[in-house]
Specification:
globular, alpha+beta, 193 residues
Length: 193
């Protein structure tokens, strides 16, 4: 039987596996510790809160993509190509998570649904609809929904990176939930042609 420093190969494999499990578990606990969702957030349906970013989705296992997106796009100014018109840096976004983070950054400072509709229209979205919805916790919320057509300036993107090789043409629909002037959740849905 093959030995490594006096241990059999199956023993070494088991030790290595145990170290990997402990390391991944520790990383998961560390990454999930960034979630600041408090009881008042949970009462509104928010399961994840990191700074001013909120989401109805639980933070999940190993939320590395979310934390990287929050780090890459730390505030409203970094997300915008044009501060006056609130045009986002669509060509710089590498994932749906980055789109959601940046829309969250922009809408956290937006106080009315009409302002949200105007910003969505400036970014190429059409057919924005606003409605009042009730959540499972009976808190009245506003839902804003809009679509972007493929190849529309700004939000209609053509991507060429190694995740979507060689070309994947897509756009987004967005769904924004608010409670008063507080943005609670933004969900971007990728529409692939």
């Amino acid at each position: 039987m093959t030995k490594f420093h006096g241990l059999s190969l199956p023993s070494v494999s088991l030790i290595f596996f145990a170290i990997v499990v402990v390391a991944v578990g520790g990383l998961d606990v560390f990454l999930r510790s960034h979630n600041d969702a408090a009881d008042e957030d949970r009462a509104l349906g928010v399961r994840t809160r990191i700074g001013d970013y909120r989401s109805f989705n639980p933070i999940g296992m190993l939320p590395l993509s979310l934390l990287l997106a929050l780090n890459r796009w730390p505030d409203r100014a970094t997300c915008l190509a044009d501060q006056k018109t609130s045009i986002l840096r669509w060509k710089d976004f590498g994932s749906t998570t980055e789109v959601e983070v940046c829309l969250s950054r922009v809408f956290v400072e937006t106080t009315t649904d009409d302002e949200i509709v105007a910003i969505l229209a400036a970014n190429g979205f059409a057919g924005a609809m606003t409605s009042t919805v009730r959540s499972p916790v009976n808190s009245a919320k506003t839902r804003v929904f809009a679509d972007c057509r493929i190849r529309t300036p700004y939000c209609g993107l053509t991507r060429n990176n190694f995740w979507h090789f060689p070309f994947e043409i897509y756009a987004f629909s967005v769904e924004i939930f608010r409670d008063g002037s507080t943005t609670l959740n933004i969900k971007a849905h990728k529409i692939v042609k």
